[in-house]
Amino acid sequence: MSKLKMKTVRIIALREDRKRLLEHLQDNALVQIKKIEKSAKGFSRIDMTSQMQIFEKNVNLSQQALRILDDYAPEKKGLLASFSGRRGIDPDEIGVIASKSHEVMTICSRITDLQKQIVDNAAEQVRIKTSLTQIEPWQKLDIPLNTGDTKTTAVFIGTLPQSYTDIELAETIAKANSKLEFEFEIEHTENSMTCIVMFVPISQKQTADSILRNLGFARPMSPTSHTPKEKTRRLKEKSKMLAEDSAKIKEEIISYADKRDDIKVTQDYFKIRTDKYSVINSLDQSKHVFVLTGYIPEEDCVKLEELCHRVATCYVEFYDADEDAPVKLKNNAFARPAQNILTMYASPSHDDIDPTPILAFFFYFFFGMMFSDAGYGLLMAIAIGIIIKKFKPDEKMKENLKLFQYCGISTFLWGLVFGSFFGDAPATLYNYFSGASITMADIIPWPTIDPQKDALTVMAISIGFGLIHILVGMGCKFYVCLKKKDYGGAFFDTGLWMMLLVGIAVLAIGAFSSQIVLYVGAGIAIACAVGLVLTQGRNKKGFFGKMIGGLASLYDITGYISDLLSYSRLLALGLTTGVMAQVFNMLSSMFGKSVFGCICMIVIMVAGHAINIGLNALGSYVHTMRLQYVEMFGKFYEGGGKEFEPFSLNSKYIKIQEDK
Known about the structure:
The protein has helices at 18-28, 49-72, 93-135, 166-176, 205-214, 228-255, 260-281, 301-311, 339-345, 356-371, 374-391, 395-418, 425-434, 440-443, 455-483, 487-512, 515-535, 543-553, 557-566, 569-588, 595-636, and strands at residues 6-14, 32-33, 87-89, 153-160, 183-190, 193-201, 284-285, 289-297, 314-320, 654-656.
């Protein structure tokens, strides 16, 4: 278990060396910059906000351009391409990227402008479609919709919200005013609309207007100076031109697909510059020098000092870190993959120990016991090994893959214990082709445990491992209390409970083996229970308060029993994996010994085991994490620490290769 000791570092360097020093610090990722709220006396801050805004604008523009390219010219990637690491570049290549950045950003602007034009064209197409829908009923009309009155005649062109025949409309208007002189023509009619053109003497315009208004008359929303047929022709022609224009624009966007890599590295370049200027924004600076303060692991102090003196004229000093210092973990190759599981929960506080090695062991152990198939485990371990070797993923992805590789090894070993290799696939295949009737027990030359036949045995083993898991967690609490010199918490609040659980376990073993063992277990349990009654109320006032507090503490035994029963999921998940595998094997052999039957067998086995791997690997992962987070971490782990986040190249697509 290793939490690296942290130091606070202060670097005072010439202002002329600021750019070069910050770039080297960013490349080497050694220091977490500490942001000081107020400047020291005699120093000031340089406001770099405007420059940062320009860089952030470029980052956003490049991201937008990449999304547009992905829409029109998706990047061709293999199924496993997501495992590939970032592209490695030489430090000198940053200068080349910088020199091309203006050209690349011009391309990004062009791509976004083209996309905006496509969006505008699409919006115009919607408007054209709406106009065509509105003008469709007027196709028989041979005058423009905006035809106005003449000196002698008033013209009404519009719609009525009801269906009329010629006779019905004439009768309705005549009934409203028998003296009105009018001529009309119905251009179109449907269930809830009638399109009409009506002519009346100019002297009777107001009368006709009043009658039509009472009937719900409405003029066209977009009257034009062209006849409806001519307007329709023009709109369709414009729609065709817009479609052709959009097609040409899409072709131009696609033509920039070969610039995708340049856009990616330029985006990272501006991200790196944004981070650097953010640091500059928080530095104390005078006319000639600047001051940088941060946190660094003690083991990297010499390396940092050598780096600073190599690239700048500066003074470097180290002193003990304060309580706000971040936490950096260091573990061996076996435990390191589990650090991501730990930090998903919480980084350790300064009072916590680093539980990663313990977490790693039990995570691999329990995952393997739940997944529990040698074939699945072997497949996981080999496949992940090939992926790591072929794709060379980044460090974080590599550690995540190694986590599952170690889980695969554990799964393989547990599969050997349970006698499962793709369920009972070897026996099924042998029986299918030979006509025999053997089981996996007949094939495997070593003794195995069958979770289906020996469920109680596996349950007892699961509870036993659960007890060990909980005791290890309580042991960590015991150690933390001793480290903090809380001897009462160590011996009374933790030690007695540990011994009580051990006593109960010994008592349970004695019940099935030896009366002497039973008595020993009972004696330990009773002695520890008495100790708990006498000590758990020690912080209460008065004799009765102490005794009641002590007696009440014994109720916590129900919580421990509940925790132990949680480990029955080790049996449940292991049983599920094995049973599902055997079911798929059985289904695969039901189509007889023929070409069709062999094809069905292959398809069902491959598909069935793929489904089984997907479902039960996920279930094993989730339930293993639950056992760590709830059953063990709840016994000793507080968390709440700040993870060490060094000033580094915050890049998505590139990484700077170390000098050879």
